[in-house]
Amino acid sequence: MNKINISTLLKNIRIARNYTQQDIGAILNLSRQGYARYEQGNCSPSLRMLEELSDFYNISLDYFIGYSNNSNISLISTNDISKSQYSAISNAINTDELNKLLVDYSKLNSDERNDVQLYISHKFQLRHKI
Q1: What is the pLDDT of residues 91-125, one digit of tens each?
Q2: E strand segments, 47-129
Q3: For the chain, what is the mean pLDDT?
Q4: Half-sphere exposure of 121 (CA within 13 A, CB side)
Q5: Nearest CA among 51, 34, 33, 41 for reference residue 9
Q6: CB 96: neighbour CB atoms within 10 A?
Q7: E strands along 1-130, which residues?
Q8: Is the backbone of residue 72 left (phi > 0), alpha (psi -120 to 50) or beta?
Q9: Cβ 58 vs Cβ 77: under 8 Å
Q10: What phi-psi label fits residue 18: left (phi over 0), alpha (psi between -120 and 50 degrees) or beta?
């Protein structure tokens, strides 16, 4: 894939997932303008940036660089959760809400993420005690 195809691909995936350039820039520790340069084809993302995007979107790196037509697109990674948990998450929340939560969560530092996980665990424990 040349950089024009990568730029189009980056823009299409971002729009399909309802993210702004600001959202993705924040995830990559770039300004909105810095990320926009990738989508405009003014520069090509480094391999490290493509790896980060691949992880964030849960899309194979081979798809980003043109070696595969199969993106293996999923909203969340099923590597860390069971199929039943994934199904429960998918049924409990709509795509727009999930995307916003993922963007917001990605902006948190590790201590804040731990706090969120503890809060969610606490809420589940309270629910099951009732």
Answers
A1: 555 556 666 777 777 788 888 888 888 888 888 77
A2: none
A3: 75
A4: 6
A5: 41
A6: 10
A7: none
A8: left
A9: yes
A10: left
| Tokens 């299409």, residue located | 12
Q: How far apart are CA 93 and CA 75, in angstroms?
A: 11
Calpha distance 106→1 (Å, rounded): 28
Query: Which amino acid, 118?
Result: L
- What tokens appear for 88 in the block? 């429960």
> Is the pTM of the predicted complex or chain greater than 0.90?
no
DSSP-assigned letter for residue 11: H
d(CA 21, CA 26): 9
CA pair distance 9, 108, nearest whole angstrom = 27
Rounded to whole angstroms, how far apart are CA atoms 23 and 15?
Answer: 11
Where does residue 96 fall: left (phi above 0), alpha (psi -120 to 50 degrees), or beta otherwise?
alpha
Determine the Cα–Cα distance for residues 122 and 18; give it in Å rounded to an integer.
30
Q: Return the number of other C-beta atoms located less than 10 Å from residue 114's C-beta.
A: 11
